[in-house]
Design brief:
Elements lengths: L9 H9 L1 H11 L8 H8 E4 L3 H13 L6 E3 L1 H4 L4 E7 L18 H8 L1 E8 L16
Helix pairs in contact: 2-3
Length: 142
Amino acid sequence: MGGSRANSGEAIVRWLCDERTTILDYARRQDKKLIQLSDAEVLKKSVGIVTPFNKQAKVIEKLLQQHGIYGLTVGTVHKLQGDERLLVLFSSVYGENNKANGKFYDRGCNMLNVAVSRAKDSFIVFGHPEVFGVGADGSPSC
């Protein structure tokens, strides 16, 4: 099964930084209680980042801090269990060079289902498109 995995995590952090204003505006339109809060608090209450690997969570947290973003919930699905966010970003970690069978989500759908269910409004997957989809044996991924 191997150990914890990670990649650079740059895409998810870059996207969050690029879309920050749009996310803040949208969150405040969806929940009027957020209007009075600081941008940092709105992000903290509205965005969660989920990854199947602790190592990837640490990489993403460090990058967020380097970009001045603190306090977001970043971790495995267990960290968001019982909690919801308007927007959940999912870092699959698997990239173009990891197309082989045996991904975490092909061993059971529970983890991915929990991650999706934490999103009140939107669930965005960051990962190479060829990693997801039909398996080599023709069976679908979860």
